[in-house]
Amino acid sequence: MDIDSLVERINELARKHKSVGLTEEEKVERAELREVYLQNIRNNFRQQLDSIEIVDE
């Protein structure tokens, strides 16, 4: 699942949660999607940190 569709589904569930509430299956799905999203953010941040090169003058 690409990041755009992941965020779209998370937002869709958030809107539904605010309006009518979520079923237990949807709550589980939301938690799993959030974890995938956060893991993606962590991996991207780790790649950025790994690519930093410190240069002393």
What does this structure look like?
With 57 residues, this protein is mainly alpha-helical. The chain contains two helices and no strands. Helix 1 (3-19) packs antiparallel against helix 2. The chain starts with a helix and ends in a 6-residue tail after the last helix.
Brief sketch in words of this structure:
By secondary structure, the chain is an all-alpha fold.
Structural key phrases:
mainly alpha; 57 residues; Helix Hairpins; 79% helix; rod-shaped
Strand-helix topology:
Layout: H1 3-19, H2 24-51
Helix pairs in contact: 1-2
InterPro entries: DUF896
Family: Belongs to the UPF0291 family.
Protein name: UPF0291 protein FHR92_000535
Q: Which structural category do the helix and sheet elements fall into?
A: mainly alpha
Oligomer: single chain
User: What is the gyration radius calculated from CA atoms?
Assistant: 17 Å
CATH fold name, please? Helix Hairpins
Main sheet characteristics: none
Order of helices and strands: HH
Strand fraction equals under 5%
Total domain count: 1
Low-confidence stretches: none
Give the integer mean of the pLDDT values: 95
How far is it from the N-terminal to the C-terminal residue, by CA? 44 Å
Reading off the top of the CATH hierarchy, the class is best stated as Mainly Alpha
InterPro entries: DUF896
Family: Belongs to the UPF0291 family.
Keywords: Cytoplasm
Protein name: UPF0291 protein FHR92_000535
